[in-house]
Amino acid sequence: MKINNLINHTTEWLRGTGPNSDVVISTRIRLARNLTGFPFPHKAGKIQSGEILKTIKTIVSSVDLLKKTTVFALSELSGIDRQFLVERHLMSLEFARASNNKAIIIDDEEILAIMVNEEDHLRIQVVQSGFNLFEVFNIINKVDDILSQEVNFAFLPDWGYLTTCPTNTGTGMRASVMLHLPALVMSNSINRILEAIAKLSFTTRGLYGEGTKAHGNFFQVSNQVSLGHTEEEILQNLNGLIRQVIGQEKSMREVLLSRNHAFLEDRIWRAFGILKSAHLISSEELIELLSMVRLGVDLGMIKEINARTVNELFLITQPAHLQKIEEKKLSARERDLKRAEVLRQKLQ
Amino acid sequence: MKINNLINHTTEWLRGTGPNSDVVISTRIRLARNLTGFPFPHKAGKIQSGEILKTIKTIVSSVDLLKKTTVFALSELSGIDRQFLVERHLMSLEFARASNNKAIIIDDEEILAIMVNEEDHLRIQVVQSGFNLFEVFNIINKVDDILSQEVNFAFLPDWGYLTTCPTNTGTGMRASVMLHLPALVMSNSINRILEAIAKLSFTTRGLYGEGTKAHGNFFQVSNQVSLGHTEEEILQNLNGLIRQVIGQEKSMREVLLSRNHAFLEDRIWRAFGILKSAHLISSEELIELLSMVRLGVDLGMIKEINARTVNELFLITQPAHLQKIEEKKLSARERDLKRAEVLRQKLQ
Fold first, then answer.
1. What is the tens place of the pLDDT at every residue in A20-53?
2. Among B272, B274, B277, B341, which would you mutate to test the A interface (most chain A Cβ atoms within 10 Å of its Cβ)?
3. Which of A7, A138, B167, B182 is deepest in the core (most CB within 10 A)?
4. Is B323 exposed, middle or buried (0-12, 13-18, 19+ CB in 10 A)?
């Protein structure tokens, strides 16, 4: 697989399918793992990080489950390519910034991604569309098992998996669910929900993970606690919480539909109209508008396009994606122009 | 002619033709005239105002130039019909409120309108699309001459025509030009222009005359002074002023096109996109959006519709017009829904 092939590929988690996909965009689990006998990445020298990368590459090429993956050395990727992978949620922003013996392993469906020599030696991620916590866990668990057979992970019976940052120690697991909650936002109920989530020791973030703001009614909810609970317990708790939130969003959609039908219809169709006709559009505004269009699709109001198309528009209008489509560097203003052009093409 | 026939009729001043019609919507002149031997309308009794109406009706039916007109007694018009005529700029809002011996005389093209027993015994109006001060004056002058042959107008050599309100004494003439000045508004140059207009003793108003605010970049400029100058002088002064404003608007459009092309294109196409897709739209927002679309048409960006269609949309989406289309009373919210529906139908 080549990076450029991904441009025309709809990553699995954007397919708009899976359980509760009218509220849940995607479910993601990542595991932090470190190899015994090596210092944590920020303390490891060139030779040590090189050895880790070599070990992992060997495993990937020999293990059946990982054969349909490609290893990309970060040193061989351009700045735009790295940002491109960040936009596809295949690697973190911090990881993209340095390249020394760092690599990213991606499977053809973009379901599995393994960052090598990130904050931990390995950051394994599995992501799928819709609300699929246990299925996603089953997949990542298999990958974890296979890797455990090939290398020794740093693990202490009392502590669990050891990680660079103590917040990840224990299970080393972070499970995240990307929610689309337009009705809770429009009805001003979202703050109450976010407060409840925080009180239950879960974290809410924006579309691009840690440190990013929620835009266009998208909220990523994940576990904060990794230590002192089993993976099963963490997933059960998160599962219960997300089911609650999904229920509340769905009832609020019903309320809006029955009490504010014209208002809702107006917001949705205006957003669609602007996306089809604007000539300059920022990524922030785009997310707000696509959020409304996505709601329109989910409510059955908009039938011209489906959830998958909306999701694809989210992705291909991101800065690095636009620059890969145009095959050159673009200034912020040029991107706003190109973004609007791509939208008009795709929607007309 | 019946009132209802007007719904499908494009009044002459909305045809979007005539000189400088890319900046000037319409040119309007009205003359205030009173008959000798009768008190001014607010002092006239029922019998007197009835006699005035009878006199005028007789003239209208016998004079060739006025044969293609219809007399509507206000007492026979419903509230919606009256508002409908106000929206078509055929009569004033104040006039529409009372009905005692009031009548409106309209020609088939809606170029000529005579209000009987308004603030003065007669308010004669001629309106045409584009910038046509002298042609409009020629037409109204002929009507005035013909009426003068049939009745005696209150006139003193030192004062000119006598009117109920002293501000109209003298020529009794008010000449107004409806300007569309989006580029001067967008470039924040409009206040400088409006101040200059005020200093030269001209008045600026909104779309619906006295006491109305400017909306959507539409400004109606008219003479304030009626006394101490001949009609010719007033028209020459107004003509010079308007030519200046037209020139400034046109150069500013050129500047915007060359320096802010994408911004302008974006504003225009978004407005068009919203008009085509909204499900709720207020008349204020409509005017703002149609103003942008009109600019798009005038600049040759939008080719799907022409100026006449834009102007028709202005008119048929007014409250009374919507209610006549729907053939029933509509609340403000119902009108916002119907307005959006009419727009979607006409633009798709």
1. 999 999 999 999 999 999 999 999 999 999 999 9
2. B277
3. B182
4. buried
Domain that holds residue A178: 3-254
Q: B301 and B168 in one domain?
A: no
Longest alpha-carbon distance in chain B: 65
Residues comprising chain B, all counted = 348
Work out the minimum CA distance from B271 to partner chain A, whole angstroms: 8
pTM greater than 0.80 (yes/no): yes
Could you tell me the two tokens for A341? 């052009």
Q: pLDDT at position A237, please? A: 94
What residues of chain A lie within 8 A of the CB of B278, using their CB? 266, 269-270, 273
Structural domain ending residue among the three candidates A235, A254, A273: A254
Do B266 and B210 share a structural domain? no
Last residue in a domain, options B238, B254, B270: B254
Q: How far is B278 from chain A (nearest CA, A)?
A: 5
> How many domains, chain B?
2
Q: Could you give the residue ranges of the DSSP H alpha helices within chain A? A: 46-62, 79-87, 93-97, 133-150, 182-186, 190-199, 231-259, 261-277, 283-298, 307-316, 319-326, 332-347
Contact B210, B94 (CB under 8 A): no
Cβ contact (<8 Å) for A269 and B263?
A: no
What is the ipTM for the molecules in this complex? 0.85
- The answer to whether A142 and A63 have CB atoms below 8 angstroms apart is no
Q: Which residues of A touch B280 (CB under 8 A)?
A: 262-263, 265-266
Same domain, A102 and A129: yes
